[in-house]
Design a protein that fits this description.
By secondary structure, the chain is an alpha+beta fold. It contains 5 helices and 10 strands. It has 2 domains: 86 residues, 2-Layer Sandwich (Alpha-Beta Plaits), CATH 3.30.70; 133 residues, Alpha-Beta Plaits (2-Layer Sandwich), CATH 3.30.70.660. It is globular and about 60 Å long.
Length: 249
């Protein structure tokens, strides 16, 4: 199932007792529709306030109750307007939304002009001071490749404490969309918590002249969260798409 959602009303994707989450709302709607318990697997556990256009979830459904078109219509009636089910399809028995994924791609949008845009306020970070786009692009180069991204990741807790923060980034770029709108897109095999927002916060510091593009290599090498800048606001980030192997499309 491919989902889009407005992350603002939710405390992230993962279920949290007593708090509104994407998984909580989706699971409840699925169970009402299918008449059976549902355990969701998700491609990317987005944080509070983060949006998605191409989030992917997988789950087992009773064969006799599974009608993709009817399920999509029912869920969209229940979940609109904050969550939209963009596609529903039967997958191979071994498909898993998280473990079958080969890459995830995120987009972070910045409105870089003196006057804010009320129509983009919910999905973009307004940075009023001019950004040096050339410096922003140059600072992307050290990110590409396989690195330990500890400097950009929130420290893992609980069962994930001590987990490797090595990730393989295949693309990182800034795109100018005109009228002061800039989009940072990054694709990697996987991401650790707050990684994209910490990278964007650091890149914007480069664009403002507070850091040099050449500092990024040293920040990565430091492997200390304090070496990078503060995270960019959550509402500018969107999980754009999830890639799978040829078998799964």
């Amino acid at each position: 199932m491919t989902l889009a959602y407005d992350g603002r009303p939710f405390r992230g994707f993962a279920v949290q007792r007593g708090l509104p989450t994407v998984a909580g709302a989706l699971t409840s709607a699925l169970e009402r529709t299918l008449g059976a318990p549902v355990a969701l697997a998700v491609a990317g556990r987005t944080d509070a306030g983060v949006h998605a256009w191409g989030q992917v979830v997988s789950f087992d459904a009773p064969a006799e109750a599974f009608d993709p078109d009817a399920l999509q219509r029912s869920l969209n009636r229940q979940l609109a307007p904050t969550i939209a089910v963009r596609a529903v399809a039967e997958a191979p028995a071994d498909f898993h939304a998280r473990f079958s994924a080969t890459a995830r791609r995120y987009r972070y949008t910045v409105v870089n002009r003196a006057v804010p845009d009320p129509f983009l306020a919910a999905t973009a970070w307004h940075v009023a001071s001019p950004l040096d786009v050339g410096a922003l692009r140059l600072a992307c180069d050290p990110l590409v490749g396989e690195h330990d991204f500890t400097s950009f990741c929130r420290a893992p807790k609980g069962a994930e404490e001590g987990a490797s923060l090595v990730r393989r980034v295949t693309e990182a770029r800034w795109v100018a969309a005109g009228d002061g709108i800039l989009a940072f897109e990054i694709e990697a095999s996987a991401f650790c918590q707050q990684m994209v927002r910490a990278i964007v916060g650091t890149l914007v510091a480069v664009g403002l002249g507070r850091r040099r593009a050449g500092d990024l290599s040293a920040v990565i090498a430091a492997r200390r969260r304090s070496a990078a800048e503060r995270v960019a606001p959550a509402h500018g980030l969107c999980l754009l798409l999830v890639r799978y192997g040829a078998e799964h499309g």
